[in-house]
Amino acid sequence: MKSNLKSKKPSLSLCMIVKNEEEYLQECLESVEDVVDEIILVDTGSTDRTVEIAKQFDAEVYHIPWHDDFAAARNESIKHASGDWILQLDADERLDPESKKELRHWLENNSKMCISVLIDSPKEENNKGHISRAHRLFRNLPGIQYSGRIHEQISPSVSKLKGEEGFTNIKVMHLGYNKSEVEMQAKSERNFLLLKRQLAEEPNNAYYHFTLAQNLILQKEYKQALTSLNTALKLGGLPKDIRCSIYNNLTEVHTKLGKYEEAVQFAAKAISLSRNQTTSYLLLYEIYGYLDNPLRQIDCLESVLDITGKQKQSYNEVSLEAYVDETAIYINLGNRYLKTKKLEKAHNYFQKALEKDENNFLALTGKANSFLETGDFQKAQELFERVHQQAPDDFGILEKLGWLAIKLQNFHKGIEIYEKLLTFHPENFNILKRLAALYSKTGNLPKSKEHLLRLKSI
Fold this sequence. Notes:
single chain; 458 residues; alpha/beta; Spore Coat Polysaccharide Biosynthesis Protein SpsA, Chain A; Serine Threonine Protein Phosphatase 5, Tetratricopeptide repeat; 9 strands
């Protein structure tokens, strides 16, 4: 990439550290190539096409050995930057296209020393994820540098320079939680070792005890995580957003340990620190599921929906904010209302989900079940037919369609469905009995007798 550092507009340098990132790097660089003025890439030992890809974007590539120190590598990257501002990204991150205009606006219209952006980490398999804040945009000034072997930060150096921080809604998409289980485990183990080394150097650093706890939670070492979280609180000195996240982590850990009463208490502490965050309510929803309390689950999800409209505010109040796809929230609310026999509300929430995704399998199934409960068998059948098209071999859906065919006195349709069910379970007593009755109703006595004889042989 050709430098544009003589422009009157503030110039921007992208600074990265990489190793074997050929799978992710190109899309990362494509996301910012029309925003940044130069690309500085520090490679710590790639053996794949990472460097080749970087040079396709005219990146300046520097090579250093890896010394188990992220801050040292980051500082090497910013040492070579010539821009007025520095943007830091990892290879598995992309600048959200809708944030480009806001990014340029902040570069040209603010007096802050560093800028906090939103890191959106979705988990593709379950429509969940979390959003955190990080200082990824800062002025290229003497004295601004990273510190920390792991979970490196520039904020301590900015504080020493008495610089101000700006909060933005610039969004960076992080794909790191969608890597393979092997990759995630290797990353977790690497980070654990670095955190232990960092704590050996700074045993009274509450922040590193907090980050160690998060690593231990990912490794499902909940008792050890509990110790680290309590140590972080005891050492103190942490800002409100980190304390709120610690209480949410304590909620999660106690839930995993089956200590639900304590978990509820810690969630309440997190909510008292920040009422405009959804993480605590989502954790409580899980707890009340274990306690089979659908009414309290409804309260939790209704709170999540209420907060969602104000969520940008909450990103300043908690260091890590969980989220769930709104369609999934509607479906879960529909199911909880269905369980408590509040059928009109159940129906309405399933409908809201279908307005967002008209072919959503779970929403169609839920709405069909709500019609079953109200006795509207015709509408239930229509919806289950749509579900059946998506999952033609789903035994449960076929059973309901068979039952509905009988209720609607469509006996030939019922026979067709139950014969298919019989292919799944040839010796199923109830299916054979139902087929015998259906054939009798349609006047096909030989077939009815055939199934009765099969019943006797079971």
